[in-house]
Amino acid sequence: MRDTGLRFLLPYMRPYRGLLLIGLVYGLIGASASAFSPTLLGWAVDELLAVFRVQVLGYYALGLIGLAATLAFFRYRLRMLSGTIAVGVSYQMSQDLFNTILTLDQRAMRQYGTGDLLSRATSDFIYIWRFYSAGFQMSVHALFLLTIGCTLMALTSPLLAGIVVIMLAVSIGVQVGLGRIVERAFDKVQRDLALLSAFTQEHLSAVRMISAYTQEQAVVGDFRRLNDRYAQQNLAFVLRSSAITPLPSLVVMVARAIVLGLGGIMIIDGSLTIGQYVQFIVYLGLLSNAAQQLSRALERLQQGSAAAGRIGEVLLRQPSIADGPEAISGTLRGDLRFENVGVRSDHRWILRDISVDIPAGTTLGIVGATGAGKSTLLSLIGRIRDPDAGQVLVDGVDARRYKLKHLRQAIALVPQETLLFSMPLRDNITFGLKDVPDERVLSAVEAARLSNDLVQLPQGLATIVGERGASLSGGQKQRTAIARALVRDPQILLLDDALASVDTKTAAEIVHELSSARTQRTTLIVSQRLAAVREADQIIVLEDGRIVERGTHRELLAQQGRYAAMYRRELQQSETEEPRT
Description:
CATH topology of the largest domain: ABC transporter transmembrane region fold
CATH class of the largest domain: Mainly Alpha
Oligomer: single chain
Strand order of the largest sheet: 6-7-8-3-9-10
């Protein structure tokens, strides 16, 4: 991955090639103004030593002021230009990263984790920004200044210039050689920061459970260990980086000592003037600053390369679920058929030999013990994952042949774990839709039996529900999710145990509403409560990934099999709970 960092950075600069060329011109003019200042100063010293004339002194002073103004103006222009490039590159790269994250499959999401991806999407972009904004303009100015300055020095005294150039070349070579060590150290820092972010995100979302089990001290201890490791990696990076940073100054100080001694001898024998001597001393100061700027630019390059490598690692991930080369679209009716469908996970089958027809407009109930494969079955319809055997047909066509966006627009999924955003309740219901009429929203709210709760909310549908719906109960959140699905009027509605937190009476009302209004809508209901599926046109019972029973509610009760046993157990539980309510 170390070699891919710059490979991911450079392509984003292609739209800015014109600006880069302009930036090089700005850098050349600014560096030329800076590099010519010592030469002009040396001429002034020699002129003043020969004949002191106030007028000449004024000309040289104006010349130095003009060069300083030129340097300031073009350094400013270069900085603004590099900032423009940094904004554009960071913006486009962050957009690509976010779009890629949205297409990642479940395996990739489990591999990275939310905290790790957040770290890549925030912290790493800081160093990419620094590379393009500060690193680019510093490196351009420093390289031009070193080149022009050493050339002007060579025209004055090839011997002294040769000594300085050799020493600077050795210094820069060592910095570049050690740069990979610094880059690897910085990559470890960012990876440990990602682990720390992931730990923080995960445990902050579970803070109530941590308090309930009095695990605060244990969690603090785990956080301290991760934090200590991050601090140690950061210290290791700083030590390596700090070992390189003083190198340019050290080299220039040694070169200055050589120039002072050798230059004095050359003045005595007449091969060097006092003005040229002063010129060399000033040049060494300029070149020292240039070498330090180049060192900082290299450090930003190493950090930016490491950060881009981490981002590029995500960008390289191709979604396992994608449109085929000849993907089709069209109006879907909602006719579903599973043909010998099988799904594997590691070395076992989650689903095996699943075959069932679900005509458009009908309702299928899916029941079974936890881990029987019910949610996996639903995930195949919207291609959250694809079957490893058999095929899922939608309107007689393999679901893999449809365009993903087109297929998923016809499907609404209500998962058991509801995710709401910190926004008004109405915006949560109409999430992703624009200009939805109030009548349509209220109809969905009524069908989801959320209308009874609006009077309890301070501002009704305009109430901000808080992060992840913190201000709502579990049942209210699930009913909000059902309303969100219904307002889309999908051809296929998937309820994945979406009534688990809803009381039995309300759940029955919702199912009845869905049954009475479904007309052309195909509905699949996964539920642990048999009361939620008893009105379904067909019910299947899953066990160990296979269909072991199928039929209507009455037919399954008559079979006296697993479904009937589950139904009797549910009745007993309701009778036991009734006296307490």
